[in-house]
């Protein structure tokens, strides 16, 4: 046996048993969690909900956590926390644009898929999270909004370019663009695994199709 699994962890975190629902403390909506998520955003009201079952156990202090899990849980939490205020402000803006909340809830759906893909594939969080939230906004509008929110010009340009590519259904580009394309496809339905642009997207699409076929 080449690799000995740390007894506190199980890396096959895509299994259905590792996904569960928690009620949003603000509106009661069922928020879906992966067992390693520190927190997730409510799709209905946008509130950040903490994962009550979070049990990274030894992973938070073990020096082998990164090779064991495939990512460093401390880095993952830090990377997501750093962009919380940008995410909050974009969600707020979407709520202003569409008072029915539909635009916001679709955006949060894509955001959650993007976060899951990002935890397996990597990529620049700021660019991915902003593009996921703005996927229904015209590129020129998105560009204006990001500059209002003081996002650096290089990241804003990357987001704008990704949105333009998404609108034209252009082929896979950067890792961030591929994550965005997969996140949108997964949030909107049950895409065929072979149409996915990233390996994690393919696994998620396969799992979704399996669930769809057994229920
Ligand atoms: Zn809520």
CATH fold group of the largest domain: Hypothetical protein af1432
Helix/strand/pairing category: mainly alpha
Radius of gyration: 17 Å
Hetero ligands: zinc ion
How much of the residues is beta strand, in percent?
5-15%
Number of helices: 9
Return residue spans where pLDDT drops below 50 for at least 5 consecutive residues: 10-14
- The total tally of domains equals 2
Let me know the largest β-sheet. 2 strands, antiparallel
CATH architecture of the largest domain: Orthogonal Bundle
**CATH hierarchy class name of the largest domain:** Mainly Alpha
Q: So what's the overall shape?
A: globular
Measured as a percent range, the helix fraction is 40-55%
Task: Describe the overall structure.
The strands form two sheets. This protein has a two-stranded antiparallel sheet. It has a two-stranded antiparallel sheet with strand order 3-4. It folds into two domains: 15-71, no CATH class; 83-214, Hypothetical protein af1432 (Orthogonal Bundle). It is globular. Residues 10-14 have low confidence and may be disordered. Helix content is 53%, strand content 7%. With 215 residues, the protein is mainly alpha-helical. The chain binds zinc ion.
